[in-house]
Write a structure and sequence with these properties.
74% helix, mainly alpha, 0% strand
Length: 140
């Protein structure tokens, strides 16, 4: 019973295909096409940082507390980010790298509200979980 359609949707969502490709790219220690161009170095550095940060946020989410449509919206943005990143790699154009970062900003706006952090959010999640277990399963 735990998880239901929210967890199933999260685990099986098409978002993961493009997301794992972006994560692989970030973990590959990418190098700028021209390290003398400050904007390119900055954009690439930010892109890697944003992907790793977003991945940590996604890992911290409780899928049962994230509206299902968040993943559909995130899938569109991550797919476009990957297209822009591949275009940057192929064409060496900084414009595509900037667009990829813009797509990461979009993803950030979708998932950051569902981030679980230590402190009040973690306490709230603990209380909500205990309450749901007590109410539904009669546990505790």
């Amino acid at each position: 019973m735990a998880g239901g359609r929210w967890l199933t949707n999260f685990e099986n969502h098409g978002f993961w295909k493009s997301w794992y490709e972006l994560l692989d790219y970030a973990n590959s220690s990418p190098k700028p096409n021209d390290a003398t161009i400050v904007d390119e170095v900055s954009e690439l550095s930010r892109l890697v940082k944003a992907i790793i940060y977003l991945n940590d946020i996604i890992d911290s989410c409780d899928p049962e507390l994230v509206p299902i449509d968040v993943w559909a919206n995130t899938e569109r943005a991550s797919a476009q980010c990957l297209i822009d990143l591949n275009s940057y790699t192929a064409n060496k154009s900084l414009t595509y790298l900037r667009r990829a970062n813009d797509q990461l900003d979009t993803i950030l706006s979708y998932v950051r509200p569902h981030m679980m952090v230590k402190g009040n959010a973690a306490k709230s999640l603990g209380r909500a979980t205990r309450h749901s277990q007590q109410a539904i399963l009669g546990a505790g």
